[in-house]
Amino acid sequence: MFRRSMLVSILSLVLLGGCASNSPETESTTSTGKAEKGSRGTIGFSALDLKNPFFKIIADTLTEEAEAEGFEVIVTDAESDVNNQSKQVDNFITQEVTAIVLNPANRVSIGTAIKRANDAGIPVFTCDLQCAAEGAKVTAHIGTDNYSGGRLAGKAMIEALGEAGGNVLVLHFKQANSCVERVKGFNDEINEYNASRESGKINVVSELEGGATQDVSFKATQDGIQQHPNLSGIFAINDPSALGAYTALSQAKKTDQIIIVGFDGQLEGKQAIKDGKIYADPIQFPKKMATGTVANIVNYLDGEDFKAVELIPTELYRKADAMKDPELQ
What we know:
19% strand, disordered N terminus, alpha/beta, 12 strands, single chain, 6-stranded parallel beta sheet, elongated
C-alpha cells in the first residue's frame, strides 16, 4: 500500500512538472527579458536609398531597435524613386503591417501613397525626410533641423572664403524637403552676411541638380565650373554630393581654387574633411532619428504622449574635429 501511494505521488509531481515546463512565460517576452520578434506586429520601412550609408545606418538601427521592442521589420529600398516607394507602401498595406516608416522619395508626390495608408488605418511615420503633401497624415516625424543646419553651412562658407568672398555654386536636391530647408537656411545666412558689407560679398551664382549622389553631382559640378570658371565655393546638400564635386574639381585641377562645404557627417565625409577635401559639414545624427522613430511607434501604440515633429540640431564639424574623432583613428 505504501509503495502504491509513493508511485501515485511521484507520477503526480511528474505530470505537474511537465505542465509547468510547457507554459509560456509571456506572449511578448523571453527569459532574457527581450521582446519576441513579431510579438508586437510588423513595421514596413521604405528607405530612400540603401546605397547611401546615411540611410543604411537608419535602416540598421531602426531594425535593431524595433526587433528589441518585439516588432518584425521589413526593409525595402526606394532607390530615390517615388514610384518604387509608392508600390512598396501598397505592399505594406496589403501585408497589413502595424506601422509604416518612410524616408519620402518626393516630398509632395509621396502624399497619395500616404493617403492610401491613412485610408487603410495604418499609421505612417517619417524619418529624416518630411512629407509636404496636403491632406496626407503623418503620425510623427523625427529628423534634422535642416534650416538651422543650412545656416551653419552658410557660416562655414563665410568662414572659409574670408574677406574676399566670391561666387558659390549650390548642388541641390529639390525633391527632398530636407534639402529645400538646407538651401533656404544657407541662402538666408549668406544674404544676411552680404547685407552688412559693401565688398567681399558671397554670391550664389547657380543652383544645379546634384541628385544627392556622387555621379550626378560630379557631372553637375563639371557643368558648373564650365559655366562659372571663377567659382570660389560649392555648397553640397550631402556628403555624396560633396564627394562627387571634389572628384570633378580634382580632374579640373581646381581643388585649390574652390572650397566645398558639405552636409551629413557620414564616415566618408568626415574622412574627406580630415583629408582637406571638404572644409566642413553640419553633421546629422541618423541613429537618433531611427531610435526616436521606434519610440514614436511604441508610444503611439501604447497610447502614450509623443512629439508630432522633432527636429535634431546639427553640429558644425571641421578638420580640427576630424583630427580627434575616434571613428577616424
